[in-house]
Hints:
The structure holds 2 protein chains of 2 kinds.
Chain A: H1 4-24, H2 31-36, H3 39-44, E1 63-64, E2 70-71, E3 86-88, E4 93-95, E5 121-122, E6 130-134, E7 137-142, E8 145-152, E9 155-161
Antiparallel strand pairs in A: 1-2, 3-4, 5-9, 6-7, 7-8, 8-9
Chain B: H1 2-10, H2 12-25, E1 42-43, H3 45-59, E2 63-75, E3 81-93, E4 97-104, E5 108-113, E6 117-122, E7 127-132, H4 137-148, H5 162-167, E8 172-181, E9 184-192, E10 196-203, E11 210-217, E12 223-233, E13 252-253
Parallel strand pairs in B: 1-8, 7-13
Antiparallel strand pairs in B: 2-3, 2-12, 3-4, 4-5, 5-6, 6-7, 8-9, 9-10, 10-11, 11-12
Amino acid sequence: xxxxxxxxxxxxxxxxxxxxxxxxxxxxxxxxxxxxxxxxxxxxxxxxxxxxxxxxxxxxxxxxxxxxxxxxxxxxxxxxxxxxxxxxxxxxxxxxxxxxxxxxxxxxxxxxxxxxxxxxxxxxxxxxxxxxxxxxxxxxxxxxxxxxxxxxxxxxxxxxxxxxxxx
Amino acid sequence: xxxxxxxxxxxxxxxxxxxxxxxxxxxxxxxxxxxxxxxxxxxxxxxxxxxxxxxxxxxxxxxxxxxxxxxxxxxxxxxxxxxxxxxxxxxxxxxxxxxxxxxxxxxxxxxxxxxxxxxxxxxxxxxxxxxxxxxxxxxxxxxxxxxxxxxxxxxxxxxxxxxxxxxxxxxxxxxxxxxxxxxxxxxxxxxxxxxxxxxxxxxxxxxxxxxxxxxxxxxxxxxxxxxxxxxxxxxxxxxxxxxxxxxxxxxxxxxxxxxxxxxxxxxxxxx
Lengths: 167, 271
């Protein structure tokens, strides 16, 4: 479990970012947020620069980042190089893995909001996802969560959407 | 420890205000372009001259096609770094036609610009999307980057303003000597920016084309992107329909997410 170095950095950087977050009104204080993270964990999860990559809190807290970018607890060495991409399931929060592999589950299955105010976005589908065609469009479903493929920059990613069959 | 923290809190407000201001000014996502208020870069004259020769040469090519072998580092969740590879073929016909194909370990992608729209296609997944674009290559690329975060490290070489874009974020640059890339003698230049260091090998000949391009991402543990240009063709025979996108059967059109912070570009802003 990461201890010394990231914690030291967090302790120096966190007050500045908390100030920034407060000024921007973006601390995770949504009703959903308060259900899922407590103060100690919110302190632990910090936001990265430019609203992008974030660092996991010491207890793997899942927090909502700025502009709704969701961040989930990540394993020690994972390096985000852009918007943090996680998908929310009703009971799971996880981060992208390489080549369709590794999905990491948040410790309390936190459900978080995604970027752009819409559904959370993942770059690789979780293990066990299957494709379904609904009204001529392709969706993927995993653990009861539906995803729609969408371009982000020049790559295809998957954005969580409401169950299209139920609309 | 506690005292340090107290001092930090005292300086909290002005520091926080400064941070807010700097966040408003700086672009959020990393790219080769720097904040607009960069001070004059410290570029060695010989390096600047060689780079400018290359850029002048490229921008005066009315059409060309080039093949490149690209390798990119990726950091796995375990901390292990591995390298993925792809082959890129780009065709450009100035002022308003462009096509790029990228076939590699992870995907098989395509970009087609026909003067009116940019179409991105993922052949391995069979999805594509279309963006309305301005009628000229530079403007179309700019639009793609600003509105949709399209990332194409090699696109910097295609702009007619390539010299300005390549040196926009440069803090320093120097001439590293002569080096051979695939047997071709080249000038080796090295530049530093805030978030990346990059190097370029430019043919030492009357046709100073780039032969190798290497980017080191300092914000991501030194992950590297390398492109070796294996073939330049400055009088290509473009086949009919090369710059027209035709959706394959069963390919599905999907949406594209707007960039996270779509700030409207000011006049004179480089990117």
